[in-house]
Design brief:
Elements (H helix, E strand, L loop, with lengths): L7 H14 L5 H8 L3 H14 L19 H12 L8 H11 L6 H10 L22 E2 L3 E8 L8 E8 L5 E7 L4 H14 L5 E3 L16 H5 L8 H9 L2 E2 L9 H20 L5 H19 L5 E4 L10 H4 L2 E6 L5 E4 L2 E5 L9 E7 L3 E6 L2 E7 L12 H20 L14
Parallel strand pairs: 1-7, 2-5, 5-6
Antiparallel strand pairs: 2-3, 3-4, 8-11, 9-10, 10-13, 11-12, 12-13
């Protein structure tokens, strides 16, 4: 018995079987004491006689199960989890990545046991939370879309950037994600573009009271809004929603739009590792990667709606999304054929528009700045400090020479911190 540990039950069984071998107890008495059949008793007697006292233990007690994880694979998995690539994952995400990237397939319970025995804890801990009555999901896909943005150190480089997102209330599908330096108009316009192209227009968008969506109390009607007979001011984003016939209703608390709040918790837990593994280090790289990640996320987390019918409405082909998803303002052309935006002067190329005529100006990261008059679009160039070397260039060369400067200006205008520049959201 030296070097072998026995349970109390095993010791009792051994003592009784040994007493049978020594002739101090009958098979029947042993059977009654151990609640076993006499056939089992005599089998145990023969085992102990032939193999010694350790035969009383379970037959596989000292045998390694055939389905156990090899020691070298165990160490490989532990090394993966401790590496820089995987150290930020929770156990569930780590399991998925092992299958996806390393072709290692384990059950969650096996992985959990392996890692906890190695002293590794899952990153995601369940905290005690205040209980809130959970609102029932909408029955139809596209009936309501929750909208929000969240700032976070996504690249673990000390810089805080904001991801904007839409999520369908009925299914939990992510409809669009876009990253900017701040939570801003540009981010929400680009998320809207993703949703409209891939799904269509929902019945209702449910954001918070952020000034991108709803005007501030001090905001007044513009002259154009008064002429259109509107009773309340609107924002640039609100103009787009009005055109598409999408209702907007503000959430009074973050708990009211809990679906998208939980999305941010999941993304903050998972995207850091996904960015690391895919070598994503800039906003531009992130915005190329995020549409691909949406497919992966929806496959993992989205559910079927209660009712099969979709409330999404396909955007008509005649709608020009490039002109719709912009910041729109009006200007009057001066005698030199120019107009200004925030102290920067622009000139219309191939100008056939008379002075003192009001024109519509469309601004977006995709199109830059476009002037529209009588259903015709015109390109513009920036004339502030126009170098002499550009005077001999043709139209295409001239526009190309200024496109970078104009796009930089547009991006600055649309990605400003709106808490500091709230009036710009309605009119420049």
């Amino acid at each position: 018995m030296k070097g072998i540990e026995y349970t109390k039950m095993e010791l009792k069984k051994l003592n009784i079987i040994q007493s049978v071998i020594d002739g101090k107890r009958t098979g029947k008495e042993a059977s009654e004491s151990l609640n076993l059949s006499q056939r089992q008793i005599w089998r145990l007697v023969n085992k102990v006689k032939n193999n010694g006292e350790e035969a009383i233990k379970h037959g596989n007690k000292f045998n390694k199960p055939v389905h156990s994880i090899p020691n070298d694979l165990k160490q490989k998995i532990i090394n993966f989890k401790l590496s820089n690539d995987y150290c930020d994952t929770n156990f569930s995400h780590f399991k998925e990545l092992l299958e996806e990237r390393e072709n290692i397939i384990l059950s969650y319970s096996s992985l959990y046991s392996l890692l906890t025995e190695a002293g590794i804890k899952s990153k995601k801990k369940h905290k005690d939370r205040k209980t809130h009555r959970r609102r029932k999901r909408k029955e139809y896909e596209g009936d309501m879309v929750q909208a929000d943005g969240t700032p976070y150190d996504w690249f673990k480089d000390g810089n805080i950037y904001s991801i904007h997102g839409f999520i369908d209330d009925a299914t939990g599908k992510v409809l669009g994600l876009y990253m900017c330096e701040n939570e801003c108009l540009l981010g929400y316009l680009e998320v809207t573009r993703q949703m409209l192209i891939n799904y269509g227009s929902p019945r209702l968008v449910y954001p918070d009271k952020y000034s991108v969506f709803f005007p501030t109390k001090s905001q007044k009607l513009t002259k154009d809004e008064e002429l259109e007979g509107k009773e309340k001011p609107t924002t640039q984003f609100g103009r787009v929603m009005d055109f598409l016939g999408i209702e907007m209703y503000p959430a009074s608390t973050s708990q009211a739009k809990g679906r998208i709040e939980r999305l941010w918790e999941t993304l903050q837990d998972r995207l850091i590792t996904e960015f690391k593994l895919n070598n994503i280090k800039t906003i531009e790289q992130a915005n190329v990667f995020l549409p691909k990640y949406i497919i992966k996320y929806n496959k993992r987390f989205a559910i079927k709606p209660e009712k099969e019918e979709s409330k999404f409405i396909k955007v008509p082909s005649y709608v020009n999304l490039d002109l719709l998803l912009t910041s729109k303002l009006t200007r009057v052309i001066d005698n030199s054929g120019t107009f200004s935006i925030k102290n920067k002067r622009f000139q219309i190329v191939n100008n056939k528009i008379l002075p003192n005529v009001k024109v519509d100006i469309y601004m977006s990261k995709k199109i830059g700045i476009i002037v529209e008059h009588n259903n015709t679009q015109y390109k513009v160039i920036c004339v502030d400090n126009l170098p002499n070397k550009y005077s001999t260039l043709n139209l295409n060369q001239l526009c190309k020479a200024h496109s970078l400067e104009i796009n930089t200006f547009v991006e600055e205008m649309l990605t400003f911190n709106s808490k500091q520049y709230e009036p710009l959201l309605t009119s420049f």
